[in-house]
Write a structure and sequence with these properties.
The protein has no helices and 11 strands. With 120 residues, the chain is mainly beta. The strands form 2 sheets. Strands 2, 4, 5, 6, 9, 10 and 11 form a 7-stranded mixed β-sheet that branches.
Length: 120
Amino acid sequence: QVQLVESGGGLVQAGGSLRLSCAASGRTSSRYAMGWFRQAPGKEREFVARISWSGSSTYHADSMKGRFTISRDNSKNTVYLQMNSLKPEDTAVYYCAADPSLVFTRPVYWGQGTQVTVSS
């Protein structure tokens, strides 16, 4: 089992930045890919970004490329999502996820989510 706890969400003005963190505990000795999804009110959950266990492979959704950057620090069992140039449409609950597979279509483990609100 892997437990994931997100932090760093909050209220920010359009154009601002936030950095989300996700701390993993439990079976962190296993090599998990980690990533982020988000869900806005009334919308389906959508993929944001994912990163391989080593950090050598990253992938970001097209709409976030150039604005969002995923990274990880395995010494701290933590993955980050740096979000810049935020837009009101980025408002959502952001979820951290982990999975043994880099395919990452249906991650096994999920955090509880952290709210990000971008005001115009």
